[in-house]
Specification:
single chain, about 280 residues, alpha/beta, 10 helices, globular
Length: about 280
């Protein structure tokens, strides 16, 4: 004969409270995920222009009422191509002026892409919006500056760079992925193992799928002491890529301070590889 045990009210009540609290956390995380994923610096166009000028940059395209990002004011001479850079989830594109400083001296025109909803740009904070806008920027950059086109992503920006490279709209010669993950849902599940966040996240930023059919050179840069993106997430991405790939591990560097651990030789090595190198782990 089956017997059912009914918990007394004094025990049942705290269990119900815990369950309700857990559900409330899930609902909050789902509804507020954009606020938990994106941390944009917002400003007026006048402030964006002023900040750009402080670093020798111009809003680009200069003739547009809106803008896609920033370019240097002093690029001259023949160009080896254009490098379109996509930054991480915080701040704004002008904060990444160091990409122009380091890559431009190697002979490439550099464009720092500004996401919609960042800086003085309007628009929702969504992966699909970022990618659609980035594709238009990529096409405009090649038309204005000429090719070949290279895409460079950092952290969240790797998801945009990989989507441009893996798309069919425009030809990309090489890709650089700095501190990338495999997919955002898998990363989030890794970090918040106690919540089913993998099933709640709307923006996937799936670098594995995006780069699945890309045949050009892919440089992957992993911070050896990355405290935000576990190395295993970057390594899983690297293992999924085609043979034309190379992995750089920046030793004794974290997610946000890898820049201090690389030198001029490193920048040239990375760009030389994506501009025609062959894979070698």
């Amino acid at each position: 004969m089956l017997r059912f045990t009914i918990l007394p009210g004094r025990l049942l009540e705290p269990i119900v409270i815990v369950i309700l609290a857990y559900v409330a956390v899930l609902v909050f995380a789902y509804l507020r995920q954009e606020k938990m994923t994106y941390f944009p610096y917002r400003c007026t166009r006048a402030v964006a222009v002023d900040r750009a000028q402080q670093f020798g940059l111009l809003l680009w395209p200069a003739s547009s009422a809106d803008y896609y990002g920033f370019v240097s004011t002093d690029f001259s001479g023949p160009s080896k191509g254009v490098v379109l850079c996509f930054h991480g989830n915080a701040g704004s594109a002008v904060d990444r002026f160091y990409y122009i400083n380091e890559i431009q001296r190697l002979g490439y025109r550099v464009v720092l892409f500004e996401y919609p909803g960042y800086g003085a740009r309007s628009g929702p904070l969504r992966e699909s919006v970022f990618i659609a806008d980035a594709k238009r920027a990529a096409q405009t950059a090649v038309e204005q500056f000429g090719g070949p086109l290279f895409v460079w992503g950092e952290s969240l920006g790797c998801g945009i760079a990989s989507a441009i490279a893996g798309g069919k709209e425009i030809t990309v010669k090489g890709v650089v992925m700095v501190t990338p993950w495999d997919t955002l849902p898998d990363l989030a599940q890794n970090l918040y193992w106690y919540l089913p966040v993998k099933w709640l996240i709307r923006d996937a930023y799936d670098n594995i799928i995006n780069l699945r059919d890309f045949k050009g050179p892919i440089a992957v840069v992993m911070a050896g002491e990355d405290e935000i993106i576990p190395n295993k997430r970057t390594e899983k991405l690297f293992e999924s890529l085609s043979e034309n790939k190379r992995l750089w591990t920046v030793q004794n560097a974290g997610h946000n301070d890898w820049l201090r651990a690389v030198d001029e030789t490193w920048w040239k090595e990375v760009m030389d590889f994506v501009d025609g190198g062959t894979g070698d782990r």
